[in-house]
Amino acid sequence: MTRTAQQLFGAAAVASFKLNGQFLTIAEELAKPSGITVAWWQVLGAILHEPLPVAGIAREMGITRQSVQRIADVLAGKGFVEYRPNPAHRRAKLVAITEAGHDAVRAIDPQHAAMAERLVAQLGTAELTRVVDALTTLSAALEALEGDATAD
């Protein structure tokens, strides 16, 4: 049976909503022993390699600036991040991970690695690579469509 574009779009949306829920459930279990939430992990993950302004984290993670700001403020209060001056923008400070933030993320690594191995055992490396590539392509296409929609 050939599906219409609308049916395919709907099926992709439903599958991605379910997948998002599954990832969040797994991530909660992975993050729990380190004492951080999935939302905190998400923000810390966005700045693991370089400090970013709140808006940059929001773009990277696909969440709102307001949500990121609230989380960043909590993380700063707990010593997991710090605000630094941003040479590119006087008012938009950079959010930088601290050593305590790195420690919290590192505490997740053993469970994260074990779950990754279980998934690779289930799918195989080649299939998981194909899935990741397809999801990345779908995300880029939707991002391009968002840009088209705002240009109208």
UniProtKB/TrEMBL annotation:
Source organism of the structure: Nocardia tengchongensis
InterPro entries documented for this protein: HTH_MarR-typ, MarR/SlyA-like, WH-like_DNA-bd_sf, WH_DNA-bd_sf
Protein name: MarR family transcriptional regulator
SUPFAM superfamilies: Winged helix' DNA-binding domain
Residue span(s) of domain HTH marR-type: 1-140
Pfam family, one: MarR_2
Species lineage: Bacteria, Bacillati, Actinomycetota, Actinomycetes, Mycobacteriales
Gene3D superfamilies: Winged helix-like DNA-binding domain superfamily/Winged helix DNA-binding domain
